[in-house]
Design brief:
Number of domains of chain B: 1
Number of helices of chain A: 35
Distance between the termini of chain A: 108 Å
Oligomer: heterodimer
Order of helices and strands of chain B: HHH
Helix content of chain B: over 70%
CATH superfamily of the domain at 34-362 and 381-419 in chain A: Sodium/glucose cotransporter
Distance between the termini of chain B: 17 Å
Strand order of the largest sheet of chain A: 2-1-5-4-3
Radius of gyration of chain B: 14 Å
Number of strands of chain A: 9
Largest sheet of chain B: none
Helix content of chain A: 55-70%
């Protein structure tokens, strides 16, 4: 045990240390160090969320209700996932408008409403004061435990409260701070977060591994004990799934709307980028500080510690098991948690009270001597007042409730702000009347369903007497409002509070109109990332006037410093400043005052000074309203057009990509801007490789003069470099764009195959007609020729003169020749029509070779004929390759025509190759000739392995 | 896109930490809660890192 004076000394020394840390950090920050302004300090400062409730109350909750304490930390973890969307926007708005409290935020969103600001402040003070009391209660109780006294004295309690109040003033109200950030304070809070984590983990390790043999050991033992129901949730446990969900939701709202969280997360944020790291660092902190809650709670129960004292197992276990120094460390950890909360919360609440309740009453008294000192002292009194209000709560009704009970009531209280705050960020139609109605409804439900039962339990309100009829009625029972039974008290209050709050907020907003001021503020908040540039008054006032206004509220020295800083920042002098810069100075002064007094008062002060006249404000508001309406309409139309355009673009692209024609778009410098799939196939160049390249380089095979005329249509042969694919025949159409977009559209079709088919068809038709002619000629000439031949043969058997005999022989020779030609004609003609017979490949090849006689005409000087046969894709491919004289280019297309021959008439009929061609075609095959004059000839014959 | 990812993660978390999913792990639910909690924090971390890399063009 420790004596009370020793403990007081420790507390005092710790607070001095905190102050020194804050002072050091503030000095460093002023010198430009990033000691405070970094994501790690920001994340640790957010852990001000973990108050003495976390430090002591979580263990108490775990020992009494099992796992439900986790909701208080899982809720913020879930919310953290949305911070980049929600918190970043809030920070952005607050920085732009120098908003420093949650009441100013809500009031500012709804047209700088003073009433709303005051209402939010009142709800926050009533809702949060018990939470402040909770911290004081925890400090006083733990002080008593450590001092070995069962009951703490009122004197000790008052002294601690006063001490904390004074330190809260030192940290937050030494002067009226025009810069909304408190770097030193935040660093001290971050330091306290580290201390409480270390202290809690130390106790956790001591219990888990010092008194038990690990987490598994404790869990196994608790499962075998009467406390096994603490290990589960839902039916059969102390916590229903409904309560679990409600508590999770309440925690999600609390981490956003508790005034101290708003202070550290929004007001003290020095860079939106810090949010990104805090999104996982802050939940990680919550995870770590909760790792040992269950082992300590269950360990305490297993060690026989009384369950009703579970809130303070963190102290009682080390004290009872020979570790007093660890208990002292735990006390300091708990004290850290409580002081951080008290200092930040009282600072945030005092700013709210000042801006929303005090300043609206006194701001017109600025001409009074010592006005600045008066408002500074008022703020100090408010801080002390708030802390003592918490103390009164702690000693009056705090004893009837556990730490968790008190904390959750505050969570429910700040959830009242959620609809007006969150919907106000995204819904333009939400208005002041709706927000007031919603908050009033939520607050009424909170008071009726949570505070009245609490006050009844504390004996402050008697359940008997005149009110008993109401409280015990079916409809207005505070714990079963409108007859709704079966819900735990948190879910019950949350359901009715949130439902009625939302109902009134939405309904009233829908059926009432926004004022012009509200419309302006709505745009600033909802469209936070697209700031509105307002036309400003043509009467900005003078520098002296603006400085005078500032001096009245923040002191002459600070006002002069702010004006000088503005001049220095923009490199201005008194002579060089013009109306535009004066307007900006006035805007700067308004935001400075906004930081010190709140935006509602700041706006009123400048309104009162007539720097912007009433008529001008009305004009500006009207303009804003008109612009707002037209912008909203235009935005919807634009979104619709944009959607249609996207659909049309997709539709057109699908068509262009799916057509078999190559389409390319070129700009004026012939660089490719579009290249479709067919183009890739035809040219053999991928889209990615073609884009941005010059088309005349990509399409070199088409020739360089392609792009010279404006419009071009025709067929071109694409000659590819040797070794590449064979040349292709392309049909192209080039059009010059004449609209705003200059350039060309090139449409291209590969007609190589088409050309080949056309040629084949032409040749087949020619062969057929010649065949019919040949058949007729063969028949008509063949018959008389046979008679002539037989008569000549008969005459030659007679005894004739030498002349006659010689002449007959000559006739016979010519007849033979004619007969050969007629037979050839007959052979050719007999091909149409004919009957196909199954035959061997060998037979076909032999016939073909016989027909294609490689004699002295093909290779007059001798040479080599190479015949190769191979299977190729279901075809038999025969290649006849010679080293002969080759074929002239101009004759190459005619060699398969009937009667075409380059030999003298006596040496051939010119039907050999055309017969070959016909036979092969007839069998479904192809024959191609590839020849270069003087370089030999190659015939490639492809015949299907199986007939069709 | 960024906003959608965070909203998706938030909705995923709400589902993971509420009925009926948590009822699957009864009666020994504490292990699930702590494990899922840690994984969820890790997910936030990885998404934040991924988005930062994407923004930096990496």
């Amino acid at each position: 045990m420790f004596s009370a004076p020793v403990l007081f000394s420790i507390i005092f020394a710790y607070l001095i240390l905190l102050f020194l840390i804050a002072y050091y950090a503030e000095r460093k920050e002023r010198k430009g160090s990033r000691l405070v302004s970094n994501p790690y300090v920001y994340s640790l400062s957010l852990a001000v969320y973990c108050t003495s409730w976390t430090f002591y109350g979580s263990v108490g909750k775990a020992a009494n209700a099992g796992l439900s304490f986790l909701t208080i930390y899982i809720g913020p973890t879930l919310m953290a996932a949305l911070w980049w969307v929600v918190l970043r926007k809030i920070v952005h708005i607050c920085k732009d408008n120098r908003i420093t409290t949650i009441s100013d935020f809500i009031a500012s969103r709804y047209g700088n409403s003073l009433f709303l600001s005051a209402l939010v402040t009142l709800v926050a003070v009533i809702g949060i004061t018990p939470y402040l009391g909770l911290q004081l209660k925890a400090i006083m109780t733990t002080f008593s435990i450590l001092a070995g006294k069962p009951e703490g004295s009122h004197f000790a309690g008052s002294l601690i409260t006063l001490l904390l109040g004074v330190f809260a003033i030192i940290f937050g109200a030494r002067k009226i701070d025009v810069s909304e950030r408190h770097g030193g304070l935040i660093f001290a809070v971050a330091f306290e977060s580290a201390i409480k984590l270390i202290a809690f983990l130390s106790v956790g390790i001591f219990v888990t591994y010092g008194l038990f043999s690990g987490v598994g050991n404790i869990f196994d033992k608790i499962m075998d004990s009467q406390y096994s129901s603490l290990m589960t949730l839902g039916p059969g446990s102390n916590v229903s799934f409904m309560e679990w969900t409600s508590l999770t939701f309440l925690s999600m709202m609390a981490v956003m709307f508790l005034p101290r969280q708003f202070q550290v997360a929004v007001v003290e944020n020095s860079s939106p980028e810090h949010i990104k790291k805090a999104m996982w660092l802050f939940p990680l902190y919550l995870f770590l500080i909760n790792c040992f809650v269950l082992p300590i709670a269950y360990g305490g129960l297993l060690l026989g510690e009384p369950r009703q004292n579970a809130d303070f197992f963190v102290l009682s276990i080390p004290l009872g098991h020979g570790a007093p120094m660890l208990a002292l460390l735990a006390f300091i950890g708990g004290f850290s948690a409580a002081t951080a909360m008290i200092i930040v919360e009282s600072l945030a609440l005092s700013t709210m009270v000042m801006n929303s309740l005090v300043m609206p009453a006194v701001w017109r008294m600025n001409a009074m001597k010592g006005f600045y000192t008066m408002i500074l002292n008022t703020r100090r009194v408010i801080i002390i007042g708030l802390v003592f209000l918490g103390y009164i709560f702690a000693i009056s009704i705090g004893n009837f409730y556990s730490l968790v009970d008190i904390g959750l009531k505050s969570f429910e209280a700040v959830t009242i702000f959620a609809p007006a705050f969150l919907l106000g960020l995204y819904w333009k139609d939400g208005n002041k009347k709706g927000a007031i109605a919603g908050i009033l409804a939520g607050f009424t439900v909170w008071m009726y369903t949570l505070m009245i039962p609490a006050l009844m339990r504390a004996g402050i309100i008697s359940p008997e007497g005149s009110l008993s009829g109401i409280f015990n009625s079916t409809l207005l029972n505070p714990t079963a409002l409108f007859g709704l039974e079966g819900l735990d008290r948190w879910s019950h209050s949350l359901f009715w509070g949130l439902f009625l709050n939302l109902f009134f907020y939405v309904t009233v907003s829908l059926f009432t109109k926004q004022s012009d001021e509200e419309t302006r503020q709505t745009m600033i908040f909802v469209d936070a990332y697209s700031p509105l540039q307002l036309g400003l008054s043509s009467k900005p006032g003078s520098v002296e006037e603006i400085e005078k206004i500032l001096a009245d509220y923040i002191g002459p020295a600070e006002a002069a410093r702010s004006v000088k800083a503005y001049f220095r920042k923009h490199h201005l002098t008194m002579n060089s400043i013009n109306d535009e810069w004066l307007l900006k100075l006035r805007a700067e002064a308004e935001t400075i005052l906004s930081g010190a007094l709140g935006p509602s008062i700041s706006s009123l002060i400048f309104q009162d000074r007539n720097i912007v006249t009433h008529e001008e404000r009305v004009q500006i508001s009207d303009s804003v309203k008109r612009i707002s309406s037209s912008l909203m309409l235009s935005r919807q139309e634009l979104a619709e057009k944009n959607r249609q355009l996207a659909l049309l673009k997709e539709f057109s692209e699908n068509i262009i990509e799916s057509i078999p024609l190559g389409v390319a778009m070129l700009d004026e410098s012939l660089r490719v801007r579009y290249w479709n799939k067919a183009m890739e196939r035809i040219i053999g160049i991928e889209k990615a490789d073609a884009l941005d390249f010059e088309a005349d380089l990509l399409l070199k095979c088409l020739g360089t003069d392609l792009f010279i005329p404006d419009v071009k249509e025709g067929e071109v042969i694409c000659k590819k470099p040797p070794g590449n694919e064979p040349e292709t025949i392309l049909k192209i159409h080039l059009t010059r764009l004449t609209g705003r977009q200059k350039g060309y559209v090139l449409v291209m079709e590969d007609i190589t195959e088409k050309k080949k088919i056309e040629e084949d068809l032409f040749r087949s038709v020619k062969h057929a007609s010649i065949g019919r002619l040949a058949a007729g000629v063969s028949h008509e000439i063949g018959n008389p020729l046979a008679s002539i031949s037989s008569l000549v043969q008969e005459l030659l058997t007679e005894d004739l003169s030498q002349f006659v005999s010689g002449s007959l022989n000559t006739i016979n020779t010519h007849v033979d020749r004619i007969a050969r030609i007629v037979r050839s004609l007959g052979d050719f003609a007999r091909l149409y029509p004919r009957q196909k017979m199954p035959t061997s490949l060998k037979h076909i090849l032999e016939n073909t070779i016989n027909l294609v006689r490689y004699d002295s005409d093909a290779m007059p000087d001798g040479g080599r004929l190479v015949i190769s046969v191979r299977r190729n894709n279901g075809f038999v491919e025969s290649v006849f390759s010679d080293t002969g004289t080759g074929i002239d280019h101009e004759n190459r297309d005619k060699i398969f025509d009937p009667f075409f021959s380059t030999k003298s008439p006596s040496k051939g009929t010119g039907l050999g190759l055309s017969i070959c061609y016909s036979i092969i075609k007839d069998h479904g095959g192809t024959i191609e000739a590839d020849s270069v004059k003087g370089g030999g000839t190659k015939f490639i014959i492809r015949i299907p392995e199986k007939a069709e | 896109m960024k906003r959608d990812i965070w909203v998706f993660l938030f909705v995923l978390g709400v589902i993971l930490f509420n009925w009926p999913i948590i009822s699957i792990f009864r009666p020994d639910i504490s292990k699930y809660l702590f494990l899922a909690w840690f994984i969820f924090i890790a997910l936030i971390f990885f998404v934040a890192v991924y988005l930062k890399k994407r923004d930096n063009g990496g």
